[in-house]
Amino acid sequence: MKNVLFVASECTPFIKTGGLADVIGSLPQALKENEQIDVQVILPLYDEISEEWKSQMHLFKSIDVPVGWRDQEASIYKLTYNQITYYFISNDYYFTRKGIYGYYDDGERFVFFSRAVIEALNYLERKPHILHAHDWQAGMAVALAKIMQPIEDLKTVFTIHNIKYQGVMPIGTFEDFFELPAEHIGGLEWDGKLNCLKSALFHADKITTVSPSYAEEIKDPYYGEGLSPILIERADDLVGILNGIDIKEYNPLTDPALPVKYRSSKARKKENKILLQEKLGLTINSDKPLYAIITRLVEQKGLHLVQHIFEEFLQEDVQCIVLGTGDEEFESYFSDIAQRYPEKVAALLYFDEGMARQIYASADFFIMPSKFEPCGLAQLIALQYKAVPIVRETGGLKDTVQPFNEITGEGNGFSFTHYNAHDLLAVLCYSLTIYRSQELWNTLAKNVNKSQFSWKKSARDYANLYYQLTMEYA
């Protein structure tokens, strides 16, 4: 059995800010169940992790962690959950803070975390064959594993969840944070600065991204955020493996957040819609098409496109619910339009997981016109709850949503290619046309019912990658 150590900055159910946590929370389970690969996970022990979880941890080991010329103490706590072993790196100075990101010294905090991982490797109950790090916060763990070689023949995999965030620090921090010969600075530096993500791209044995299309896109300067040259150089070691979701967790038949459970019943889904319309003060009509936007309210999610055409689309007999927080520009916009169209639009400028699921379960359509999207989990969740996704053809959205073709009867959603507001409006209007045709809507609904993106195939792809690295095949 292969032993793999996941190194990451967040993981459900312990701590979550985005889709990374969902991946780290569910992929180890899928690898264990489907591929007999043993995965241990190591995370920072943030103050934000609830006492419910902290009370189940026990102190496993205390170690000293060098950060340049300083020694910092780290306590390693251990917890077993769903038969997966989790380790947590504790340090009051770096992790006893409100929130988990957004501090001026985030670079130093996650260099410390990565260095602590290297120091901890030989103490873990099962010595890993492969260190699999995720996103920039764990990138230096890959670099240090290669430079310091704490375990003989340890292989490394690095997954890019979003290349936009890279963990960039002034070049002078090389001497402050690392006790390494100057010859290694080249592998950590990019464009005159230390770059945690680039460090991993340079040192990793294999690089993965969270969808095949995103793996191709980031080799293009438009999507590569300045790193496309090194990705082109390492193209033979770069592979896109599509994310999945935990279909047991996202199941409308068993979801405790839903007032009315269902498998694929349109009637039961409409019952959820009526209850939500009543709750949010929208016109109560189960036949009125309901569109949902559940997202961080930021430019990446294509909200400038929505702004340009939303009021025009609202002249149609439709409703829309927006759930999420983010930039003031978008929060103000949706708040204003909800006040002007109170029977058509509900703007919920917060995030609540239970409410998100009620919206998925009530919506006929889910709008996700992202500027870029490495994989996207929301469209996969929408499909699970039988809401039809409307997406832009980028990254994982392109890989998971096949545009509906009324001639062949194929497709599980709607999509448009160019980042253009009127293209979005056209596809929104087309979705209405399909909704109003009982025959076509039934055909589309059947396709949505068959769409399922569990972790099973993705786990097999990761397992094969691990076995390739160790010269064995599953």
Describe this structure in words.
- By secondary structure, the protein is α/β, with parallel strands linked by helices.
- The chain has helices at 19-35, 51-54, 92-95, 106-120, 139-148, 173-177, 185-188, 196-203, 212-217, 221-224, 228-233, 266-280, 303-313, 328-340, 353-362, 378-384, 395-400, 421-435, 438-450, 456-469, and strands at 3-7, 38-44, 58-67, 70-81, 84-90, 130-134, 155-160, 168-170, 189-190, 193-195, 206-209, 238-240, 290-294, 319-323, 345-348, 365-368, 388-392, 414-416.
- The mean pLDDT is 96.
- Helix content is 39%, strand content 20%.
- The chain is globular and about 65 Å long.
- It folds into 2 domains: 3-244 and 456-469, Rossmann fold (3-Layer(aba) Sandwich), CATH 3.40.50; 266-450, Rossmann fold, CATH 3.40.50.2000.
- The chain is built from 20 helices and 18 strands.
- A 9-stranded mixed β-sheet has the order 3-4-5-2-1-6-7-11-12, sandwiched between helices. A 6-stranded parallel β-sheet has the order 15-14-13-16-17-18, sandwiched between helices.
- Helix 16 links the parallel strand 16 (365-368) and strand 17.
- Helix 1 crosses helix 20 and helix 13 (303-313) crosses helix 18 (421-435).
